């Protein structure tokens, strides 16, 4: 274990954020790094808790107490080896994961939890800086081939595992560049694309083949793909955005969040001189209170929005853990991202009634109403508060209300894949869909979720594919299909 008295001697410390006035002028990382000595002190707070519930909180089953102890003892290389044993992409989770391990930390019952996410981030960065991240070449070549459709975190994790098992793996991506959500859905101030590119370079060196700009279901028929490969693994995500069919939805200036974020990311790569959906000088309203909404807020600030308002239909959560979600559950509580710190207004318990146009037919405002959450009949619903209607001036609305499942056209329809009542692709206990030899992982079967769940799903599905091809597998599987 780490220092037996570390959690008594030291307080939890997080890295400093760059000053708002500085960071809204660029797209670089928001956070500054803590000194190595401070990170070793933070790792020393990991206690000998007997049953490490951080394992329960982490879908990947990361060996958190082990690498905390190694960091405390300045054995960073060994810590990197232990982290890489369970997580293909700690450089992604260390930046993007909301760290469900931390609310499950035993120390967190009566004190501030261990700074797990930041230790993980620092291990990953030091591994790259010191040249410890090297291609892991397969010891044998099986002669089997696997097509992975989709290059988000689930598809990439599965592809890397299957390549290392000795299979010839080809990753198909309909976008012009590899990375999926990591490439075009996450702003650079949360994940600079150079971090994605260095990991893709490792995968290419290992033998994974990438084919961007190929849509399975139109450019390549799904059944042809089955004939050309021994197994097919679908990891196309949950990409149908939830819409808001209120009166006035057809007005110009109303966009899905992913349209906006992709345009901004493409501008950052040089595809456009200026993003075609730009917030400069505009009154921005973001509908949806989750991480995607926060990404839109941070992007709008950097583009020079005149004002930003974020709407959430749920009531404002409490500042501390709500009694309804006791330890070690993921807590219901108010979360404030760096984007919120940069400005704007957050409104809770409000619902959009209609989009309003000016005399020339252009978007000028939202008509909204306050709502009260009720659970009559056993299901939550929202009742309008009489007389609470008001308008919010706007000329750019971004819909960040989540996703409702994978696209039904294309390969899903071609292969006749069975869907569950929520529109997600059904799979059995072995991660196989209703079509023989076609497997599924990530959001397209699980539903919209976190990057850490996507990686865990990709690793688990890879083990199932390897077992189906070879009769047995040595690949780890942190999850069971559901």
How are the secondary structure elements laid out?
Blueprint: H1 6-9, H2 20-23, H3 36-43, H4 54-57, H5 64-72, H6 76-84, H7 90-96, H8 116-129, E1 145-149, H9 153-164, E2 168-173, H10 181-184, H11 193-206, E3 209-212, H12 222-228, E4 231-234, E5 254-256, H13 257-269, E6 283-287, H14 291-303, E7 307-312, H15 338-341, E8 345-348, E9 350-357, E10 363-374, E11 381-384, E12 390-393, E13 396-399, H16 411-414, E14 438-440, H17 443-446, H18 451-470
Parallel strand pairs: 1-2, 1-4, 2-3, 4-14, 5-13, 6-7, 6-13, 7-8
Antiparallel strand pairs: 9-10, 10-11, 10-12
Write up what this structure looks like.
This protein has about 475 residues and is of the alpha/beta class. About 30% of the residues lie in helices and about 15% in strands. The protein folds into 3 domains: about 5-130, Orthogonal Bundle (Fumarate Reductase Iron-sulfur Protein, Chain B, domain 2), CATH 1.10.1060.10; about 145-240 and about 405-470, FAD/NAD(P)-binding domain; about 255-400, FAD/NAD(P)-binding domain (3-Layer(bba) Sandwich), CATH 3.50.50. It contains 18 helices and 14 strands. A hairpin with a 5-residue loop joins strand 9 and strand 10. Helix 9 (about 155-165) packs parallel to helix 18 and helix 13 (about 255-270) crosses helix 14 (about 290-305).
């Amino acid at each position: 274990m780490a220092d037996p008295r570390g959690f008594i001697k030291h307080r939890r410390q997080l890295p400093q954020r760059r000053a708002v006035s500085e960071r809204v002028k660029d797209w670089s990382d928001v956070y500054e790094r803590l000194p190595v000595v401070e990170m070793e002190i933070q790792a020393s707070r990991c206690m000998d808790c007997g049953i490490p519930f951080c394992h329960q909180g982490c879908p990947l089953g990361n060996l958190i107490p082990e690498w905390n102890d190694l960091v405390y003892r300045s054995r960073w290389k060994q810590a990197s080896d232990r982290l890489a044993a369970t997580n293909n992409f700690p450089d992604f989770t260390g930046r993007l994961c909301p760290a469900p391990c931390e609310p499950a930390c035993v120390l967190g019952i009566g004190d501030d939890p261990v700074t797990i996410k930041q230790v993980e981030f620092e291990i990953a960065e030091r591994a790259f800086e010191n040249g410890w991240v090297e291609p892991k070449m397969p010891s044998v070549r099986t002669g089997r081939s696997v097509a992975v459709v989709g290059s988000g975190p689930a598809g990439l994790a599965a592809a890397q595992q299957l390549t290392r098992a000795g299979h010839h793996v080809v990753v198909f991506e309909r976008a012009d560049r590899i990375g999926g959500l990591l490439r075009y859905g996450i702003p650079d101030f949360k994940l600079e694309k150079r971090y994605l590119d260095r990991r893709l370079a490792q995968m290419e060196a290992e033998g994974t083949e990438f084919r961007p700009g190929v849509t399975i279901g139109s450019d390549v028929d799904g059944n042809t793909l089955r004939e050309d490969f021994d197994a097919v693994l679908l990891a196309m995500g949950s990409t149908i955005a939830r819409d808001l069919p209120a009166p006035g939805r057809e007005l110009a200036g109303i966009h899905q969040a992913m349209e906006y974020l992709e345009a901004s990311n493409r501008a950052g790569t040089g595809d456009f001189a200026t993003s075609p959906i730009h917030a400069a000088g505009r009154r921005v309203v973001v509908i949806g209170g989750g991480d995607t909404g926060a990404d839109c807020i941070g992007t709008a600030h950097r583009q020079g929005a005149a004002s930003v308002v974020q709407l959430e239909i749920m009531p404002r959560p409490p500042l501390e853990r709500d009694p309804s979600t006791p330890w070690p559950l993921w807590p219901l509580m108010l979360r404030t991202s760096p984007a919120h710190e940069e400005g704007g207004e957050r409104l809770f318990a409000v619902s959009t009634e209609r989009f309003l146009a000016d005399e020339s037919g252009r978007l000028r405002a939202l008509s909204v109403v306050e709502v009260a959450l009720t659970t009559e009949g056993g299901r939550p619903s929202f009742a309008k508060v009489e007389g609470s209607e008001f308008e919010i001036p706007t000329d750019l609305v971004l819909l960040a209300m989540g996703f409702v499942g994978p696209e039904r056209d294309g390969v899903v329809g071609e292969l006749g894949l069975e869907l569950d009542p929520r529109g997600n692709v059904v799979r059995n206990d072995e991660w196989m869909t209703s079509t023989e030899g076609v497997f599924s992982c990530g959001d397209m079967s699980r539903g919209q979720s976190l990057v850490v769940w996507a990686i865990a799903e990709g690793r688990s599905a890879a083990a199932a594919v390897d077992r189906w091809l070879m009769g047995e597998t040595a690949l780890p599987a942190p999850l069971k299909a559901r």
